[in-house]
């Protein structure tokens, strides 16, 4: 008879952060290969369980956001770094990232929710990071066209990301919302810590922040012509 699953053992624990801290000190393929079983047990399994537990929570906020718990090809970003255009040739990321992106999106620039786990850096929230070309212009134009709705959508949010030094081309530098029009990204995150991430309250906290940024997500989705 198969033993019952110990659900507590699947929770994110301090072991995840310990592994990432050790990886930062030993960021090479030989070490990672020797620690693959530890990586699977301490990182992949609990994060997969976390993602699975977020499926219904996220779908209550929006049925158009994809939450995929598959260990490979799902919502968790690969741990392997793309070093082709980087001076840093370290092969592995030293954090875990999960993106629950809109069904219409194909990459990290799609609107979505995000969870970040790393030593000394835990945060989660949502929006859109680095939209390109027509998508970026559409969001800015939506802010101009619907200023009251924009202000309502971001009320109480800590918007983050880079900004242009000047007004974007085609937009009034004297516009009352020029600070937001200069943004290159439109997202908001809540900072947390390892204590919360390894507690039974973590999923509730993430869901609460996702609900908080949902109006921003809805605004972005409308700007891009997709449902939220």
What are its keywords?
disordered N terminus, globular, 228 residues, alpha+beta, 5-stranded antiparallel β-sheet
Topology:
Blueprint (H helix, E strand, L loop, with lengths): L13 H12 L3 H6 L1 H26 L34 E6 L10 E7 L2 E8 L4 H13 L1 H7 L5 E2 L17 H4 L4 E7 L1 H4 L4 H23 L4
Antiparallel strand pairs: 1-2, 2-3, 3-5, 4-5
Structural overview:
This protein has 228 residues and is an alpha+beta fold. Helices cover 42% and strands 13% of the residues. It has eight helices and five strands, in the order αααβββααβαβαα. It has helices spanning 14-25, 29-34, 36-61, 133-145, 147-153, 178-181, 194-197, 202-224, and strands at residues 96-101, 112-118, 121-128, 159-160, 186-192. The protein has a five-stranded antiparallel sheet with strand order 1-2-3-5-4. Helix 4 (133-145) crosses helix 5. The longest helix has 26 residues, at 36-61. Residues 1-9 have low confidence and may be disordered.
Briefly, what is this?
The chain is an alpha+beta fold. The chain is built from eight helices and five strands, in the order H-H-H-E-E-E-H-H-E-H-E-H-H.
Helix/strand order, N-terminal first: HHHEEEHHEHEHH
Strand content: 5-15%
Secondary structural class? alpha+beta
Number of strands: 5
The helical percent reads 40-55%
Rg from Cα: 19 Å
Strand order of the largest sheet: 1-2-3-5-4
> How many separate helices?
8
Largest sheet: 5 strands, antiparallel
What's the rounded overall pLDDT mean?
93
Uncertain spans: 1-9
Terminal residue distance: 45 Å
Q: Using the alpha-carbon principal axes, give the shape.
A: globular
């Amino acid at each position: 008879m198969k033993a019952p699953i110990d659900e507590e053992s699947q929770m994110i624990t301090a072991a995840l952060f310990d592994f990432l801290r050790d990886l930062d000190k030993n960021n090479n393929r030989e070490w990672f290969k020797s620690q693959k079983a530890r990586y699977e047990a301490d990182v992949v399994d609990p994060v997969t369980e976390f993602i699975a537990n977020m499926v219904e929570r996220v779908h209550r906020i929006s049925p158009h956001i994809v939450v995929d718990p598959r260990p490979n090809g799902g919502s968790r970003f690969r741990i392997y770094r793309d070093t082709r255009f980087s001076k840093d040739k370290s092969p592995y990321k030293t954090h875990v990232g999960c993106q629950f992106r809109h069904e219409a999106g194909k990459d990290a620039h799609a609107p979505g929710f995000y969870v970040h786990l790393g030593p000394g850096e835990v945060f989660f929230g949502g929006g859109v990071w680095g939209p390109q070309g027509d998508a970026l212009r559409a969001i800015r134009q939506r802010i101009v066209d619907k200023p009251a709705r924009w202000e309502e959508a971001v009320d109480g949010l800590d918007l983050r990301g880079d900004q242009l030094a000047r007004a974007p081309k085609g937009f009034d530098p004297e516009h009352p919302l020029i600070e937001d029009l200069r943004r290159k990204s439109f997202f908001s995150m809540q900072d947390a810590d390892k204590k919360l991430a390894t507690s039974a309250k973590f999923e509730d906290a993430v869901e609460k922040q996702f609900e908080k940024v949902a109006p921003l997500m809805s605004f972005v989705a409308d700007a891009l012509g997709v449902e939220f």
